[in-house]
Amino acid sequence: MGEFELISRYFANCGAKRSDAALGVGDDGAVLQVRDGYDLVVTTDTMVVGTHFFPDDEPRALGHKLVAVNVSDLAAMGAEPAWLSLALTLPAVDEVWLSAFAAGLSETADYYQCQLVGGDTTRGPMSLTMVAKGTVPRGKALTRSGAKVGDYIYVTGTLGDAALGLKLCQGLHEVSKKHQSHILQRFHYPSARVALGQALRNLASSAMDLSDGLYSDIQHILKRSNVGASIDVSRLPLSQALKDSCDTGTALQLALSGGEDYELLFTVPEARRGSLDVLLSPYGIPVTCIGRITGVAGKLELKQGDQAFDYQHQGFVHFS
């Protein structure tokens, strides 16, 4: 099977059919229509075999995850997902693998109302790259640079489950049958908090998604906003599955540095805090306050209740 037959068979009609994609797969480029009064948000993520996934991972899960991790970046900026481009590098054409991968990609893109509008295919070591594009009302994009001293720090959902899922797949940690399904679902099939991200446009002072672990990721907000932070690790939201599967120290390490949670980390000024529960309650996603922004630029203080919490681990860092 040649490159263009592969594209036509598996990716020509992938995801939702959008009226604002005037021209999609099949030409040298896509033609997209951005509404008046909106800004375009663009993000790119790459998943490489051996680094981000195992060679024998279920291809349907890879298709899902590739879309979800990109859409999660759009969610963190308060954007509405719209268009996707895929750069697919494969060592050979495996039609069974491609069919399952394309199915996972298409059903997840459809769920988030995205259309695949272009990309590239080539031969080589397996690598999956996606460019996701979305729109946000002009001037309303959430960034990492708006946090102010006194702001409250929040996270959505629970932390550490995906990292435990990775350890389970690696054979490094045991999980009871009661919790295996939940833990593996969180690792292989993450969810992007799109609707909640859009709801935060007029509430949050800064935001980002959690991909490399809370301990590492919050440093980006501290650097871009020129502030510090104090986090109480006893407030970190941990699932019952994680608490039942690990001792407290391991659970906190996974929550702080495990990565691949794809939850939202955001800050809210005190004046807007009263509106938070009311505006976010319809989304059914738990939101937890874990600390506050402080004035010492770049300083991250961890505590456990009233005591200092000594912590040396770091989240995932490429080229470290």
UniProtKB/TrEMBL annotation:
It comes from the Bacteria. Pfam families: AIRS, AIRS_C. Its EC number is 2.7.4.16. Coiled coil: none annotated. Mg(2+) 3 binds at residues 28, 73, 209. Residues 148-296 form the PurM-like C-terminal domain. Mg(2+) 1 binds at residues 44-45, 120. Pathway: Cofactor biosynthesis; thiamine diphosphate biosynthesis; thiamine diphosphate from thiamine phosphate: step 1/1. ATP binds at residues 119-120, 144, 211. One of its GO terms (biological process) is thiamine diphosphate biosynthetic process. Residues 26-134 form the PurM-like N-terminal domain. Substrate binds at residues 52, 260, 316. Catalyzes the ATP-dependent phosphorylation of thiamine-monophosphate (TMP) to form thiamine-pyrophosphate (TPP), the active form of vitamin B1. Reaction mechanism of ThiL seems to utilize a direct, inline transfer of the gamma-phosphate of ATP to TMP rather than a phosphorylated enzyme intermediate. Belongs to the thiamine-monophosphate kinase family. This is Thiamine-monophosphate kinase. It comes from Rheinheimera nanhaiensis E407-8. The gene is thiL.
